[in-house]
């Protein structure tokens, strides 16, 4: 992804896993071969495997920089974490921090970690393994997490402390941040900055998780939405009714997705999702009675 500029904000992609293929029915239980065939003309081999029809996703974060502060949005899967139920995320050893360093940012220089939600593949680099302990990766940052979602997973953890809530990520990637005093629980409409050239706010995005959020960035006349898992794959622009298996409220997730697509359609606003493969960034355009995604190469 080439750098996106929103007012005084510069947005870069920090890659963890550039391309990972998921079984189509595992990702979207209600997908059909007909829907895939209808969209193959604009979704090439970068997004759908030609031989298998599997959907290709990226795992990445967004690095947001201004002259005053640096933030990282969603922190992927993380290294050395035991995820036996999902082998593709298990015990990774990826050069994520090297990729961040290549963009000119060291972990200690990050001021804010912003979590659209707390699923296993969005919080992993919140912590890293040091001398056998999970410690915050971004030691000088405030970690902003949704209060509603945190309380939901906290209750599940307290009810069954030995059960691996969120594949174990709540224990190894969230609770150590809380224990270190770096977590800030926020409401789903929390505003972090209101500067004319760098306004940043959360917005409710119900459906994928309890208390799911998206992030809006405004600067001057520019606007972008970091949608987290409101949309997983570009085929959902053409078929917004495709529901991800992890959605806790599929109907609400569809409504949230439809509302976002309608808001952005045929506007200059960027859509920056949590999993679109390279070139990742782009804009929503209308196509017939639905939408498509135009990647910005």
TrEMBL record:
It comes from the Bacteria. Belongs to the metallo-beta-lactamase superfamily. Keywords: Hydrolase, Metal-binding, Zinc. Pfam families: Lactamase_B (PF00753). Residues 58-275 form the Metallo-beta-lactamase domain. This is MBL fold metallo-hydrolase.
